[in-house]
Amino acid sequence: MAVLELINISKHFGAIQAVSDVSLSIQAGEVVGLMGDNGAGKSTLVKMIAGNFRPSHGSMRMDGTELNLHKPVEARQHGIEIVYQDLALCNNLTAAANVFLGRELRRGFGPFRILDYATMYRRAGQIFAELKSETRPRDLVKQMSGGQRQAVAIARTRLSEAKIVLMDEPTAAISVRQIAEVLNLIRHLRDQGIAVVLISHRMPDVFDVADRVIVMRRGRKVADKRIAASSPEEVTGLITGAIEQVV
Predict the structure, then answer these.
(1) What is the reported pTM?
(2) Which of 50, 37, 43 has the alpha carbon at shortest distance from 19?
(3) Alpha-carbon distance 221 to 130, whole Å?
(4) Given pLDDT bands bounded at 50, 70 and 90, which one contains residue 176?
(5) How sure is the predictor about 247, in pLDDT bands with cuts at 50, 70 and 90?
(6) Among the four residues 70, 163, 175, 223, which has the most C-beta atoms within 10 Å?
(7) 50-68 pLDDT tens trace
(8) How many helices and strands in the chain, by DSSP H and E?
(9) Between β-strands 31-35 and 80-83, what pairing exists: parallel, antiparallel or unpaired?
(10) Which is it for strands 16-26 and 4-13: parallel, antiparallel or unpaired?
(11) SS3 177
């Protein structure tokens, strides 16, 4: 059974049709690359999955059950996490503080509850170890590389036992070494049975780590293929319109 299924999902903003009749399914432990030019509808589609937008038409199912999301917190409660391109990290805080931001652990009773830093540092360290990341819980985010910052953002998704992680351009504007680190983080999520949707303009990254590639153009899905059955040249043609559709 698919962990997530979209059935004829559409979204319009007044007269603007951002997404039109998109159907897709994602399995547990699968990495799916979502590609398309700017304005293709990728971000709108992902924001519907994340609970930011409600679909104008169509339906979503998770583990076979109808999914009606009104806000992002409801998506998180169902195991859907999103890592935005800007990561939304606080540079003046430690890695552990960012991992638990808004979900801080406390100890004590009644009005005498204080932040449980020791447990948060320990749990953050365990998550970084699970992700095979060199990031340390007490390091300040402002001193981190792009790859380490991605590790912190991804570690946050592990607190809620995510079933699916949506990643928006995670390898944009970072070095080759840091790109390799981020792709390894994605592989570790996959190996733990978590589905990953990788939104990217970087063809090498998608073909390196994804199991499938979905291509969107002008709000419609024009391809959904196994990576082994496609090629960068074909995907480029689908993105630009040189190839119409292979769905």
Answers:
(1) 0.88
(2) 43
(3) 35
(4) confident
(5) low
(6) 223
(7) 999 999 999 999 999 999 9
(8) 8, 12
(9) unpaired
(10) antiparallel
(11) helix
